[in-house]
Amino acid sequence: MISLEKEGGYWLAVIDRPEKANSLTPEMLERLCEIAEAAVEARVLVLTGVGKVFSAGADLEAARAGLATSPLWERLSGAIAALPCLTICALNGTLAGGAMGMALACDLRISVPGAKVFYPVMKLGFLPQPSDPPRLAALVGPARAKMILMAGQKVPVEEAQVWGLIDRIVPPDHLMSTARALAEDALGAAPDHAAAIKGLIR
Questions:
Q1: Is the pTM of this model over 0.85?
Q2: Orientation angle between helical segments 132-140 and 142-149, nearest 10 degrees
């Protein structure tokens, strides 16, 4: 349910469980962690999904069994954020719940039109993973972070782009070609050069 395609330094990880809104089981989340940790060998890592939803976060049954508060979410976002390469989240649809963490940890976020982003931790009675609120606030500001995390708003990606959460909105049939085009300079650069630029921005 998580596939990985490698083309030279271009790594593409795909969440493929569209019949369940790409919700993640513990095994799927563990696999994403392994991919992110191994991507120190990549020049570019792209995350995307199949269907109309990028990911609904934790699978409902798994969430009830404790996945919603699993340290795997923080392990995944931490591994992505620590990568020296360019990371791109290509949202094929709505982004929800714990899946927000991996998107926030990426360098760039692009999306198809009509998608929404939301993180209903207040409603569900969970705390977000520790690194998610500061990363969200760094992108959109404290008030808008509270709009998502405390007011539970489902924000259209068109509005999220104005906020700074989404970097580009493209038609569905151009999503992956756009991700690839954004990757070209990083793919052509020496790994230590890309890492140095990323380090300066940090």
A1: yes
A2: 130
